[in-house]
Amino acid sequence: MVKAFNVPQADETAEEDLKIIGKPFRRVDGRAKVTGQTRFADDVHFPRTAYVKLVRSTVPHARIRNIDFSGALAMHGVLGTLTGDELPEPFGIMPVSEDEHALAIDTVRFVGDPLAAIVAVSEDIAHAAALAVKVEYELLPTISNFDDALATPEPQIHDYADDGNIHKKVSLKFGDVEQGFDDADLILEDNFFYEGSNHLALEQHSCLALTEDDDRVTVYSSTQCPHYVHRALAKTLDIPGSRIRVIACSNGGAFGGKSDPFNHEIVVAKLALKLGRPVKITLTREEVFYCHRGRHPVQMHLKTGFRKDGTMTSQHLRTTLDGGAFGSYGVASTYYTGALQTTTYKLPNYWFEGARAFTNKPPCGPKRGHGTPQPRFGYEIQLDKAAHVLGIDPAELRLRNLVEPNTITSNWLRIGTIGLKECIDAVVKGSGWKKRYGKLPEGRGLGLACSAYMTGAGLPIYWNHMPQSGVQIQLDRSGNVAVFCGETEIGQGSDSVLAAVVAEVLGIDLKDIRLCVGDTDLTPVDLGSYSSRVTLMVGLAAKQAAERARDKIARAVGEHMELPQEALVFADGQVFPAHDPDKGIAFNEAVVIAESRFGTLGTTGSYIPPRAPGRFRGAGVGPSPTYSYSASVIEVEVDSGTGLYDVQKIWMAHDIGRAINPVLALGQIEGSIYMGLGEAVMEEQAFRRLPKRLSPALVHKMPSMLEYKSPGFHDMPEIVSYMIETNDERGPYGAKEAGQGPLLPIMPALANALFDAVGVRVDQVPIHPEMVLKALHEKQNGREARVGPHKFPDIDYGEPLIVRTPEQGGDGRATDDPKSKRKGLRSASGTMKERDDALKEKSSATLTTD
Amino acid sequence: MLRLPPIRLESPATVRDAAKLIAKGNARLVAGGTDLWPNMKRRHQKAETVISLMSIPGLAAIDSSDTDIRIGGTATLANIIRDDKVRERFPAFAKALASISSPPLRNMGTIGGNLCIDTRCTYYNQTEEWRRSIDYCLKEEGTICWVATKSPRCWAHTASDSAPILCALEAVVKLESAEGERELPLAEMYVDDGIDYLSKQPDEIVTEVKVPGTSDSSQCRSSFWKLRRRGSIDFSTMSVAAAVWIDDSEIVTRASMYLGAVGPAPMPVADIASVLVGNKITEDGIAEIAHAARKIARPMDNTDFSPSWRGKMTEQYAAAALREIAGLPQLRMQPRHMLKVV
Fold this sequence. Notes:
By secondary structure, chain A is α/β, with parallel strands linked by helices. Chain A is built from 21 helices and 34 strands. Chain A starts with a strand and ends in a 9-residue tail after the last helix. In chain B, helix 11 runs antiparallel to helix 12 (307-326). Chain B is α+β, with helices and mostly antiparallel strands. The chains are: A alpha/beta, B alpha+beta.
């Protein structure tokens, strides 16, 4: 059920008569998907394909003493082996943490870390041969979680960490935090814990590489970011990027889990070059859990000051992230556990401290919401607690604190349109909140929570001045329009957005558009399907390219018709004068006229986000062209005898700016709810540390689809979704993101609903029924009716970077940055080599992210 | 994807031929394969030869023409649930079968296979590579039970949903081997050991399950409650099956209860007979039996949910199962999406 509320926009005249945008059209890849014609990476086949199996570490932390391939090589059908010494160049998605090797060299860092590869004529033989490889290890201490890493600075899992096994430390202080707490009437301090989880995309990672000519390799892969894979391959294979072609196949779900370059992609490319024949790998589900890059387990300590009227005076947030064995996106993830706290409610003073540890587990990274669901969970529960203490309705408390549109937050994020009030109003009305909240019978309750998310990261992963998205259009005299773009369809509908924007501008049918996407040889760079960036960035690049094409055609047709080009309308496959539609010509005829006039027709469009106002170290994480907003109410029923609970209904309102396609957008909202509910109720990337006296083992508890619990269709409650349209001029046709934001309010809304139902707090997720039962037991015994962490680790986050807020008249720079003066470090960009050089030279130059 | 090791697949046409083949050793029986194939892909069950029973004519028959219902060993779970007489006369049995896994697996999985399903444990149902990383476990190739490291025995839990209810309904299985055939009360087929969990010999084939007419719904009220994370596909983390025979004056004449997934075998709750037989079902009686059930249950850290909570839930669900039989209002939340028996 969709209800779109149209909030009046500033410029009503900008409203165009649109034929496709905003209408529910069938996704352009829909038919292929439902009839099995879509070619996913595992569907790619070539004659003489050889198959790879990776030999993975069976110990959590060790030096490799010896690898014995004799048993494997004796098997008929084994074509060869590969070890890390043949791929010595390190790689990693972030230039500051290029700490991975395609195959481990010397050291393995978690159970599942690949250390060798077997290539054979069949998958069966490759698997059997991989099992026959014998590896001798010299064990190193097992570091199993954040607290363990803090207590075990040596041996370091990576020697470039900020401090022992603490990979990254951040401390950013905006405004006068202490004065803010002095001004508060109520200060709440809480500890929260958010468990890690996997993306659980249905499609396992798959990759095929083949050589075409001498020294050229083509790689088909299930990746969200072909451009970053392209860069990593050029680096690790040590051949020019111009000789590497990466084709991103349609992804069978990704959710952030396919946005790093991966070991297996590099290995198959290397083996294809070595063997001169196609080489393929498809991971098992267990191996997907080892690639991971999922949600970081995060401990939080949140302290917030409130005035009696519910407005906030100050906040201090401390986080710890259990990062696993590699950097991945972790530096950005660390910042993200603090960056977006200011985007929903006014926080005049804000201090964020975060630290990420290396541990002997699969690396964590970006999962839908990237680093922000964890602090949002704590924040929205604490607001609920504050509302109770202050005697203010939780919805009202939030409304009193809303950030204003077109303002800059205390941590220097520029806010665009904000429809959060309308979102809250929608779910409050839909759920009957005012009549029902706090008044339902014992055992039933309602909970509310809100959130915000970025519509595309403001900065690219590696520092450059080039567009983040490019689109190229080629017009054929048949009327076919070929659209080239590096974007990657991961199920979110990006192909449909791209086609819809071009079709809208040129007034043609979606079927007359041929898309060529995600191919580094043929398409202009788009950075990838991550950070909810595609609709906005690809959409605007496509719009620019299409408008240029339209203008060119209009000029030629205008000359031909002896009319000014402005008088021409492109619609319904025709080009016609606005005043005399019957005088129109078919679009393909218009192309013929234009091609006759100008020669071969082609245009390009590109997009670069606006510069963010923050100028301090770390200001690169958090900025976005605009932010989406969500509000949700959850209704729950609790069995107080068992702790079992049933989520009965969810109301969700999302400020989407503008829905390019309401049906697809609704799918994104419902999908976010579904994934959020999984994290709230059951999902956990849990590990078993065997008793230390008996074993060094640290293993994933349940790396299978059956035993890693994630909800199925049957577990979904009824959902009522509302799309709030605030028409943000920063997005194409006013659009913002929809793919991640609506996940965020689910977890805290559930926790808040449980409190309304039975009066207990569960300050961690997933919320197992036994936790509810335990909290009820505490309540019955007169103790604090709460389950959650009681302690927070004692961490020295270092001297904070002091940044004056816009309200204080700051300029976006840090007032005092002793660290940067001392070390010249970059935060989220720059390369490791630059960083090493800076450390060596003790450079006094401050390298900032922009 | 996970790959099967090379095997020799035999498809005998008669039980006798199958029995001869299995008697040769180094072989395993397969019916629907929903248990064996994943186990062999993960290499914790091994065999050079696999003998399929699915090509044996008549072995999948369901004969409900007589007082007793006789179900062939390879009858699929889906076909048993579809049988009108089974649903009408043994509703809790049908409900238990309907709760097993997913429709595709019920279409393949058989009653014989479900009764013989390997015991499960999260240290055991893992790939070869994973098990290497814990140096294996007592149940297969290792020396330590990681669930209870000082334990000399294996604590893998029974995973069958048909077993507890059929034990409670006093079902009898027919076992055939090259040596001949015998009948055995189903409850006697299970052994309280995670490794050697069946008294059935490896060369014996479960060819038939007889559900006695004396256990049908006209004489016996039965119920089945199953605790799991998701109302679809998940194995039991604890289940309660109860059967109570009640005469015209509401006096209990016979009663049995079995617990699933909280021990290596279906665990009988003997107190149900001593408390109920000769009496009417009362709230106090239910509480006493539920309490006894909790003491009998031995939930371990070998599946989903914490052991202590599964213990508490055993008491709650034992009471719920008996309340259902007694027609008392339910106090506990029904498991979400407990599938309706189709």
